[in-house]
């Protein structure tokens, strides 16, 4: 039997139910479960499963408040890397077929395995040094130069680099001078067993309800949605919004909703446990995924989990046009598309959804069917294993 060592040195990425980082939690659990369902034995080594639980559940905003807090966080991560990299090697050693590491700032747990001839697969979802440089409002790293140096080394030394979008691949090639052949694009996916439309429902509003589940950050385009809702109100269309999640823009979004006269139509729930997310999605009529371009190469380089989760819950989506949404959203059949950042375009898309709301259930079922046929973690991981195996074989 093949055996995988799943590694992650980030102290806030955890498989614990109280994990504050919902996206990483879902991605880690989905990948590990998929490997196991495909017959692999998986031995995880996650620092976030070993540190005090208070670290795991703490908001990321606490680490971004000041130079001092970021510097302290950097020092902790560097120290944890030195300690746990050696412990991971001592525990797993030559027992594993591959190591698969979810990259974290200042982390490179797979290096000792690589030095002993064990393939080191590195998954990168965030470029900490570039995000700190180009997106200062969400900067989480103070020592950008060191972060950049360690990123560069890890990305070049691993055997295969896995990322989630072609846009991210383009950034890796242009900013880190990586060969295209080294990078494997594996988009996000979903566990359709956990995201089951038959779960219990948390319903806040009785009228047409848009839902957003995820972090509250500038590039998520929630402000665009609020402006569009205000316009719909002027047109006499009765709709509401439920926002599930937290992040650095929550206060300004609440202020904006109040200023636009939407206080009674928008409910900010805050973060919920990962296990409760399906129930909140079950209580909406349409899911919102309105990402706008970031400052890095002026692209949207993330692969939003929320798209897959809404659709797995048999909810139509209203999404800005980017790599994943163009793959998943067939206008009028699985959801609606609009140009990211355009209030007018989003308003028009919402009008279509509202006026055709009697068909939303049918559209949602088609959306779930599409997910089941090609976008579960098991399907995604099986294809990834085949591709990695071919790439590793070609290097022998």
Short description:
The protein is α/β, with parallel strands linked by helices. It contains 15 helices and twelve strands.
Report the radius of gyration as a whole number of Å: 21 Å
Q: For the terminal residues, how far apart are their CA atoms?
A: 21 Å
Overall outline: globular
CATH architecture of the largest domain: 3-Layer(aba) Sandwich
Percentage of residues in helical conformation? 40-55%
Q: How many structural domains are formed by the residues?
A: 2
Q: Strand arrangement, largest sheet?
A: 2-1-3-4-5-6
The number of E-state strands comes to: 12
- How many strands, what sense, and barrel or not for the largest sheet? 6 strands, parallel
Instruction: Tell me the series of helices and strands, N- to C-terminal.
Output: EHEHHEHEHHEHEEHEHEHEHEHEHHH
User: On the 0-100 scale, what is the average pLDDT?
Assistant: 92
